[in-house]
Amino acid sequence: MSTPTVIEDVxxxxxxxxxxxxxxxxDVLTTSGFGRASAPSGKSRGKAEVIxxxxxxxxxxxxxxxxxxxxxLIGLNADFQEEVDKTLHEIDNTKDFRxxxxxxxxxxxxxxxxxxxxxxxxxxxxYLGGYAARELPYPLGNxxxxxxxxxxxxxxxxxxxxxxxxxxxxxEAATANVKVHSTVRELLEKKDKLFSxxxxxxxxxxxxxxxxxxxxxxxxxxxxxxxxxGFKCSVGVDVAASSLWDPKEKKYVYPREGKKLDPGEQIxxxxxxxxxYSIAYIEDPLHEEDYEGFAELTRKVKDCLVCGDDLFTTNTxxxxxxIRMGAANSIIVKVxxxxxxxxxxxxxxxxxRAGYTPVISHRSGDTCDWHIAHLAVAFKCPIIKTGVVEGAxxxxxxxLIRIEExxxxxxxMANIER
Length: 418
Ligand code: PGA
Ligand code: ZN
Description:
- The protein is α/β, with parallel strands linked by helices.
- The protein folds into two domains: 7-121, 2-Layer Sandwich (Enolase-like, domain 1), CATH 3.30.390.10; 129-413, Enolase-like C-terminal domain (TIM Barrel, Alpha-Beta Barrel), CATH 3.20.20.
- The protein is built from 13 helices and 16 strands.
- The strands form four sheets. The protein has an eight-stranded mixed beta barrel, surrounded by five helices. A three-stranded antiparallel β-sheet has the order 1-2-3.
- The chain is globular, with a radius of gyration of 21 Å.
- It starts with 6 loop residues before the first strand and ends in a 5-residue tail after the last strand.
- 2-phosphoglycolic acid is lined by residues 42-45, 158, 238, 240, 309, 363-364.
- Zinc ion is lined by residues 238, 240, 283-284, 309.
């Protein structure tokens, strides 16, 4: 029998993401299968992320696939993921994928894995994670938007999130998130007669509230829904502090609230909020170069995931530096921050060895691709950050519901207690 995974063609096209921005989609055709992936896009990007596209944007990226990448990959086996990803690095030959584009690498890399799984007739999570992959992640969902993800009179923090724990199944955990999202709408309506039910790219409410008002409303909703569902629903926050940080003044500037905090005051403020609202997850509470501040806050808070997104940008060098300093205890994993699946897997493995909780994540501009749902199960990431409502978010949630069904009695929920 011939090898089912030999790559026969690589086709790239331009499609749109949930924000209506152009993005790249790649098909990989093998002897017996087919894979497809399209790249997401961030709005509050970390400085250390790879460059998404070469000069000339998506059109130029498609040319790179046609002229440089496809000729190298045709004939390789799609299940030699490391070799495919190494080839992408060699073709590009820069640290930040500026020649072929990080999103080009992402789409080729993921489409290759997808094609290999399909060629073997396996779901992606089983192809990547094997028979033992049977743990469903908890969904961490954005409920109220602020910062760079909103305009007008929205709060200064970027995301107010819900994180359930102790649920018996993924579907129950996802149900809790939906209930928290709709309870928050009711509470916002009560608070503000002018609330227009506007939503951000990630499907979170945009409302005229302060950080503290958003936290009050969200924690009330979490408590109500937690009591109803019979398990805990906790508050999470993505401060996205790099977007508040003014490097000249060396202060965090809160434009809505008109206040400025120096790094020490920022740490005290965040710690106070974590304690008061029993915040279980805090992302980027300090700006992306402040490893020391992260380490100090991580030491000071209890039972809280202190997560680095812009801080680490899924990059092993940055993560390694953080681990040595004790900065954070959790890391956001966005494959397109580094470009290839192999790079992201290395980051996840490094995080786990150091006891850091990996949180696999969507981007604010995303497509209806569901690959990250499979990556979470394959690589045992106990949390997936992917919104609550909106098509591109629900695509991932619904895929996890299907995976749970596929696993049947073997499915179990991840453990996220620290
Ligand atoms: P993004 O940000 O807009 O870069 O996807 C989301 C986040 O900060 O987690
Ligand atoms: Zn973030």
